[in-house]
């Protein structure tokens, strides 16, 4: 299957994003709102917040380190409850199973709830090939599907669209009068989607958590569409990565408090569905058939890498995206695949191949804001640094290729990259030599001043012009601090206060 991955076009992608005024407006509004509500929700949790984060991290660490045991337990419980478990090594295996099942059951229409896993394997396309129409039922995903785009945020797929964009889209695709009233647009989408729920033969969801001890799939949402997706169609397919399993029901008391606060600033999500097996009688709600597809798609390789393993702890809350100064400016599509932001810059190279996504781990100032907000305390900056090392270390590239997309990996680590590496190493050696000697430092500062004056307005017209096209290059002051210091020191008295020259004190 030809997966749409455009990670190699990262530079062009982000340049386009930076030049898109509409996108900049949409991103600024949405990310600042998400960040503000999250921060209020965290504040309201008080001291408990840090305890919850520590506990969540410990649970995830334990679950990931004993994944074989908990997956086995989860799978036996699903089968005991009348469900089926399919172990998929990659996207093709998962797609073949789900599309084959739809064909066998005569399904023509499948309703879907928001699921990054189904985006990862491009399930909609596989279903279309099998003659099955897949309709997204989460409002954001529905908007994206109508627009023929893909999500730009793991939680809010249409974050890059303004209200006016959606009004235009609905008027064009749903053939209705244009309105920017949010209530009217939502009511319209609800009306269209209700009809689809009623006639769908299959409901497809992801899984926020999979509880090993009970075989329960837990889904968190705010719109109620997951409830309908999992109860109305005859067949329910839940697609989950191997990392979604947690040991016990009581662990949910931690995650269900952390996830909504981190994701949308809510104390609790509007709906939390606990799905335990198929319906047992005609009067009960629920599907007649339950199929759980457990997907690897490169995650076993992630598990084997001690330095990067904790990327499997992610609960996809999106907080690290909202706080990231890079994501805030370039949005999700620039990253070229479905996982954007800081966690995307860690996940994508592991899933599509380091060489293919070599630019992503460098798209970070390593400010650490992502680690600060992460409810699981995932050390994203450390993993970004490690990935940079793996990508730049000669001989390492290509060793860790994994995931479905890696099958079509083409080396992109060419001569240009190597020359850039040599130049960067030489520059750092020179920097180290200058910083070790005060005399060399003083000469270098004088030289930098002369170069700075020659470069003029933000380096335009000189070799660094490309670098300064997206960055500020502050003007070098006429006199350095070292040169000014004797005068400054003369103005400071013994207690460290500035002398009042006028009073002669
Ligand atoms: S890395 Fe942490 S903050 Fe980012 S999406 Fe995952 S859980 Fe949320």
Secondary structure elements and pairings:
Layout: H1 10-18, H2 21-45, H3 48-65, H4 67-80, E1 84-88, H5 91-104, E2 109-112, H6 116-121, H7 123-129, E3 133-136, H8 139-147, H9 163-173, H10 182-199, E4 202-205, E5 209-211, E6 216-221, H11 225-231, E7 235-241, E8 245-246, H12 252-264, E9 271-275, E10 289-295, H13 299-304, H14 319-323, H15 325-330, H16 341-352, H17 369-373, H18 380-392, H19 415-435, H20 438-455, H21 465-468, H22 481-490
Parallel strand pairs: 1-10, 2-3, 2-4, 4-7, 5-8, 7-10
Antiparallel strand pairs: 5-6, 6-9
Helix pairs in contact: 2-12, 3-12, 5-7, 16-18
The chain binds iron/sulfur cluster.
Give an overview in words.
- This protein is α/β, with parallel strands linked by helices.
- Among the domains are: 251 residues, NagB/RpiA/CoA transferase-like (Rossmann fold); 57 residues, no CATH class.
- The chain is 50% helix and 9% strand.
- It is built from 22 helices and 10 strands.
- The chain has a 6-stranded parallel β-sheet, sandwiched between helices. A 4-stranded mixed β-sheet has the order 8-5-6-9.
- The longest helix has 25 residues.
- It is elongated, with a radius of gyration of 27 Å.
- It binds iron/sulfur cluster (SF4).
- The site of iron/sulfur cluster has 14 residues, from helix 14.
């Amino acid at each position: 299957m030809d997966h749409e991955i455009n990670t190699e076009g990262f530079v062009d992608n982000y340049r386009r994003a930076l030049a898109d005024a509409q996108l900049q407006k949409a991103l600024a509004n949405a990310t600042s709102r998400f960040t503000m509500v999250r921060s209020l929700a965290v504040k309201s949790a008080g001291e408990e917040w840090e305890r919850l984060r520590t506990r969540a991290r410990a649970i995830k660490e334990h679950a990931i380190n004993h994944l074989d045991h908990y997956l086995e337990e989860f799978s036996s419980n699903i089968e005991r409850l009348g469900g089926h478990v399919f172990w998929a090594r990659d996207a093709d295996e998962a797609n073949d199973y789900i599309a084959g099942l739809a064909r066998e059951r005569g399904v023509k229409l499948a309703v879907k709830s928001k699921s990054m896993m189904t985006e990862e394997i491009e399930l909609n396309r596989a279903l279309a090939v099998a003659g099955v129409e897949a309709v997204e039922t989460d409002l954001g995903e529905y908007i994206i599907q109508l627009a023929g785009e893909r999500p730009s945020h793991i939680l809010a797929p249409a974050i890059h669209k303004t209200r006016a964009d959606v009004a235009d889209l609905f008027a064009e695709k749903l053939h209705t009068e244009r309105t920017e009233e949010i209530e009217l647009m939502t009511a319209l989408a609800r009306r269209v989607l209700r009809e689809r729920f009623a006639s769908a033969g299959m409901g497809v969801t992801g899984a926020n958590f999979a509880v090993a001890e009970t075989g329960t799939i837990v889904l968190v949402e705010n719109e109620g569409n997951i409830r309908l997706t999992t109860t109305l169609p005859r067949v329910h397919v839940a697609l989950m990565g191997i990392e979604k399993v947690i040991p016990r029901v009581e662990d949910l008391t931690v995650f269900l408090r952390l996830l909504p606060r981190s994701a949308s600033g809510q104390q609790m999500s509007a709906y939390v569905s606990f799905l335990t097996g198929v319906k047992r009688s005609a009067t009960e709600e629920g599907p007649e058939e339950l199929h759980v597809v457990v997907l690897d798609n490169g995650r076993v390789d992630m598990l084997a890498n001690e330095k990067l393993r904790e990327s499997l702890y992610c609960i996809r809350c999106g907080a690290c995206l909202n706080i990231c100064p890079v994501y805030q400016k370039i949005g999700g599509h620039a990253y070229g695949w479905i996982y954007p932001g800081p966690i995307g810059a860690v996940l994508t190279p592991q899933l599509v191949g380091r060489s293919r996504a070599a630019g992503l781990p460098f798209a970070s100032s390593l400010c650490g804001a992502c680690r600060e907000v992460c409810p699981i305390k995932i050390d994203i900056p450390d993993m970004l640094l490690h990935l940079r090392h793996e990508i730049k270390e000669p001989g390492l590239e290509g060793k860790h290729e994994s995931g479905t997309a890696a099958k079509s990996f083409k080396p992109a680590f060419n001569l240009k990259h190597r020359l850039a590496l040599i130049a960067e190493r030489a520059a750092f050696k020179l920097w180290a030599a200058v910083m070790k000697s005060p005399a060399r430092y003083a000469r270098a500062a004088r030289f930098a001043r002369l170069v700075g004056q020659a470069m003029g307005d933000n380096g335009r017209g000189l070799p660094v012009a490309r670098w300064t096209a997206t960055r500020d290059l502050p003007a070098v002051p006429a006199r350095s601090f070292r040169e000014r210091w004797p005068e400054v020191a003369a103005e400071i008295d013994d207690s460290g206060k500035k002398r009042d020259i006028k009073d002669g004190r």
